[in-house]
Structures are given as structure tokens and as C-alpha cells.
Amino acid sequence: MARWDGTETAAGPAGDPGTADGEARWFRVLLHAGFFLLLGSSLTRFLMRHTGDGIAPWVVALSAVLAALYVAEPAIGDERRHRHLWLGACAAVWVALVLLAPSFAWCSIPLFYLGLRHLRPPAAGVLVGLLTVVSVTAQLRLAGRFEFDLLLAPPAVAAICVAVFVRMDEQTRRQRELIADLVRTRRELAATERREGTLAERQRLSMEIHDSLAQGLSSQRMLLQAADRTWRSDPATAHRHVRAAGEIAERNLTEARRFVHDLAPADLAGGGGLDEALRTLARRESTAGLAVRCHIEGVPPRRVPDRVQSALLRIAQGALANVREHAAARTAALTLTYLDDQVVLDVADDGRGFDPAAVRADGGVRGHGLPAIRTRTDQLGGTLTVESAPGEGTVLSAAVPLPAV
């Protein structure tokens, strides 16, 4: 359906409630009701004053034809040529009616709207001007003398109708553009959320793999290398290393299965909670050559959420993996401290240490360990502090707030 700017829309006929040409339904109903009210009142006025007039049957017939044409608007379809023929027929019948009975000039108001609606601006302006001239002529004929107000009133009414239509059409166009922008924005937002979700899931998977499977594989490699070195000189020790590597492989398999099903870490599955999981981790790391002590200070003021327990255990695993692979330390200590509003995990070692400022300067690209720990802490709304210096060991502290009761 044509709009005032001449563009086409994918709308149905004007009488269709599902049309998308922009007018509000109430306005269309009011316009249609006004047309038939004007047509009926003009016909009634004519018949009351010209009962025995010979042109009365013609006026009645033309009124019926105009009403039928108006009602037939939904059936004309979207073909431009059909719309133009239909509009021309309506205008011709109306002109004939006005020539026979000038009181029908008031029916031009709905025809203004039809012309503006179905024609491009130049043609619509010509039609509105023609209808206005016919209306002025009809009113002057009806008055029987020249009256200045009759010369100005129809053009004023036409100008008001055009202004109202153009204003409504402009608002409709802006609303349509706004809706299109909103739909496009929603699609872009959904695409962005999908991308962010994909990246977050990739990051989660990389951290889980680093903190579970990769650590286990690293421990196995170290144990097997140790077994290979002592295989001939100390078979018992070598056998102990191989057995420990087998136990780590079994735990890795359990972790992998739980990892696939997105379950909590295996060390938390036994029901002993975070305290027992950290003690188990310390004992396991001690069998791999790094002496790890575990200290628990205080008691939890409230139940620690599973998400926090899982993250703190992964932080401890990642920190010990860094100690084992990079620090060349002999001992390490895990300290879990429960405070009133937070829980603090400290991981200290006596290794070679490093410069934290240098790590921040290169973007933390020393592998997945420290960035993964920082990400986990940030996701819980906590803070991560790393204190270290070359030759002085490292202390990593992750403080995570506990949710209020």
C-alpha cells in the first residue's frame, strides 16, 4: 500500500485490521463512520428539500454507488493500477453527486484522506486541489451568492486534513523506524550475548581443564620420570611412584567424567566439604614430591555455597600447579580462614618467586594458571592479592565474600 512519500509497504487493504500502513485502528473506524455519516446526512438533506425533484433517483443511485465503492476498498488489493482506478471512480462519482446536489461537498473530507493515502505526493496534491475547487464551487452554488467565507473554508479544511495526515504519517514512519531499530538492536544484543556466552564457556572449559586434567597429567609425568630415574637403583621407590601415577590417572578419569557432566570437583563429592577437600589435595600433592601443609582457621559463620567451595578448590589446585611447575619450591602451605563476611584462601611457597609487576605488564600471559585464578575470584566478587619477589617465594591470597543470610 502506498504511503504519503510514495513508498510501498507490505500491508493489506485499508479495511483490513492487520494492515501495516500505520494509521491507528480507531482513526480508521472514525474516518469510515464519518464518511457514511456525511453521506447519509447529505442524502437525507437532499431528499427532504427535493422530494419531487426528477434528479432524486440519480442522486440516490450515485450515493449507493459511492457507498459501494467505498466499502469495496479492501477488495482492490495492492496493485497500484487497481487502486488508482478505484480512487478515480470514487472521485468521479462524488463530483457527479456534487454537481447534482452541492450538499455532498462535505464528503470530500474522507476523500482527501484516500487520495493522500493511495497516491504519490504530486498526484495526491492535484486530487486534493481538484476536490477543494469542486467543493468551493458547490458551496457557492448552494448559497446562491458570493460569500468570502465559503471561498476560504474548504481550502482551510483541506489544509487541516493534509496537515493531520502528513503529521500522522511522519509519526508512523518514525515509529516504524524505531521498532525496526529495536528489533535490530535485540538481534545484535542476542548475537553479542551468544558470543559472550561462547567465550565465557570456552574460558570456563580452559580453566577446568587446566585445574583438573592438565594438573593430573603434569603430576603423572613427574612421577613417571622419577620412577624412570630410580627404576634400577631403587625399584621399590619406582614402584611407589608408578602406583601414585596410577592413582592420579584414576582421579583424572573421575574428574573427566564429572567434568563432562558439569558436576562439582570429585574431591567435593565425598560430602566432607571444602576443608576435607583441601586436606585431600595437600596429601595428594605431597605424594608427588611437594610437601604441602593444610591449615583451617575458624569455622564458617554460615554455609559456604557450593559455587564458592568449587571455585576455591580450583584456585588451590591451580596455585599448587603453578608452585610445582614454576616455583621449584620444597614446601607449600594452604591456609583457609573463615571470617564473619568472607572466606580467605592463602597459598604460600618457598620457591624462587617472581615479579608480579612484570606479570601484570605482559598481560598475565604466563599460561592459564594465574589468569584463571584471577577470573574465578572476580566471578565471585572477590579480590586476589599476589605477593612475591625473586628468591623470596610467593603468597597468593584469594578473599571471597560470603552471601548475607
Automatic annotation (TrEMBL):
Report whether Kinase shows up as a keyword of the record: yes
The transmembrane residues are 26-48, 55-72, 84-116, 123-142, 148-166
The Gene Ontology terms for molecular function here are:
kinase activity
Localization per Swiss-Prot or TrEMBL: Cytoplasm
EC number in record:
2.7.13.3
Q: Does the keyword Iron apply?
A: yes
List, for all copies, the residue spans of the domain called Histidine kinase: 312-404
Origin superkingdom: Bacteria
Recorded catalytic reaction(s): these are: ATP + protein L-histidine = ADP + protein N-phospho-L-histidine
**Listed cofactors:** [4Fe-4S] cluster
Top EC class per UniProt? transferase
Coiled coil segments of this chain: 168-195
Record keywords? 4Fe-4S, Coiled coil, Cytoplasm, Iron, Iron-sulfur, Kinase, Membrane, Metal-binding, Transferase, Transmembrane, Transmembrane helix, Two-component regulatory system
Record PANTHER family: NITRATE/NITRITE SENSOR PROTEIN NARX-RELATED, SENSORY TRANSDUCTION HISTIDINE KINASE
The role this protein plays is: Member of the two-component regulatory system NreB/NreC involved in the control of dissimilatory nitrate/nitrite reduction in response to oxygen. NreB functions as a direct oxygen sensor histidine kinase which is autophosphorylated, in the absence of oxygen, probably at the conserved histidine residue, and transfers its phosphate group probably to a conserved aspartate residue of NreC. NreB/NreC activates the expression of the nitrate (narGHJI) and nitrite (nir) reductase operons, as well as the putative nitrate transporter gene narT.
Which protein is depicted? Oxygen sensor histidine kinase NreB
Please spell out the taxonomic lineage of the organism that makes this protein: Bacteria, Bacillati, Actinomycetota, Actinomycetes, Kitasatosporales
